[in-house]
Structure formats: C-alpha cells, structure tokens
Design brief:
It is built from 7 helices and 6 strands. It has helices spanning 13-28, 45-50, 55-67, 78-82, 92-98, 131-134, 156-166; strands at 9-11, 34-37, 40-43, 72-77, 107-111, 115-117. Helix 1 (13-28) crosses helix 3 (55-67). The longest helix is centred in the N-terminal third of the chain and has 16 residues, at 13-28.
C-alpha cells in the first residue's frame, strides 16, 4: 500500500543560527559564537580560548536555546555523547553511531519528524532516526544474480551492509 506524502516543515537555518548567536552574545559577549555544519553546530574555538569561556558552558547554553527553536527535537553536547550516564536516553545511541569526537561538531541535533532545513530541495534527509526519513525503498534490476523478492533488512546500516555484500561482494561480517 503506498504511503501518502507527509507534510514537511522547513527551518530557515540562517535565521535560526542568527537567533542562537544573538542569545549566546547576550550571555558571552558580542561574537559570532556558532556556525552550522550539517546536523551540528561548530563553536568559535579561537574566541572561546581568547575569552576563557568553558566549551561545556557554551554547549549547554546553545543546547538549551536550540531546543526552543521550532523543528528541533533534541540536541546533544559533546560531553553528553561521551558520557556513559546518557546510555539509553532517547536517540543517544543513534547519535553516537555517527559521532566522532575527533571530527564531529560541538553540538549535535536532530530535527523533529518531517522537519528539515530550507536549504534542502528534497523531501527527506535520510539522516534522522525517524521512520518517515529512514524508510528508503531500494529497487534493483540487473543480471541473474539480482533475485526477485523482498529483504528483511529494516535499518539503514543493514541496508548499507546488505548492498555492500550483495552488489559489491564485500565481506561485511565484521560490521
């Protein structure tokens, strides 16, 4: 049965980021404190060091403010993602799967279901933990090795490893 299209709501990232920076300026001083990168915020580390501001204080202030913006479901600080005490919290396990402390942003966030940035021209991001965004139909056609049927794979990671194994003949047993 086909799924009817879902209503989509858009977040103007430039405006949301502007409001966040204004809120942070009122607490920490007149500096552009954060920038946007994918589904994370990057802090102005040079200014944090120069003004001797604790990155954890900045992260908590940014997390509190971003959660008040329409369309943002949750936000996790770097400290929270590295903390054992967060285990089992909603979405934290999903966030940790793509969080790399060496290269990830300083504050990771997830949009609410059916929300995305206005800069996207699509109707899905395939980067949220919600079913409306992760259920991605994949059709395959090809030589005899593509057998008709349905797959029991139901998670993005499973689909990726399944395709790597079936189509590219890669050993994915260690994943």
């Amino acid at each position: 049965m086909p799924v009817p299209p879902l209503p989509r709501s858009r977040i103007n990232g430039t405006q949301a980021l502007g409001r966040l920076n204004i809120a942070l300026e009122s607490r920490f001083g007149p500096v552009k404190w954060v920038s946007l990168s994918g589904s994370s915020l990057l802090f102005n580390k040079a200014m944090l060091d120069e003004k001797k501001i604790d990155a954890n204080d900045m992260a908590e202030a940014a997390r509190t403010r971003i959660k008040s913006e329409p369309g943002f479901a949750v936000a996790f600080t770097r400290k929270a993602l590295l903390s054992v005490s967060q285990a089992g919290a909603p979405y934290v396990d999903a966030m940790r799967k793509f969080f790399n402390p060496d290269v990830s942003g300083d504050l990771q966030f997830i949009f609410k279901p059916n929300w995305m940035l206005t800069s996207s021209t699509g109707i899905a991001t395939h980067g949220s933990p919600f079913a409306d965004d992760t259920n991605v139909p994949i059709l395959a056609w090809g030589p005899r090795w593509v057998k008709p049927g349905r797959s029991a794979l139901r998670h993005t990671l499973c689909v990726a490893t399944g395709l790597a194994s079936a189509v590219l003949s890669l050993d994915v047993s260690g994943l």
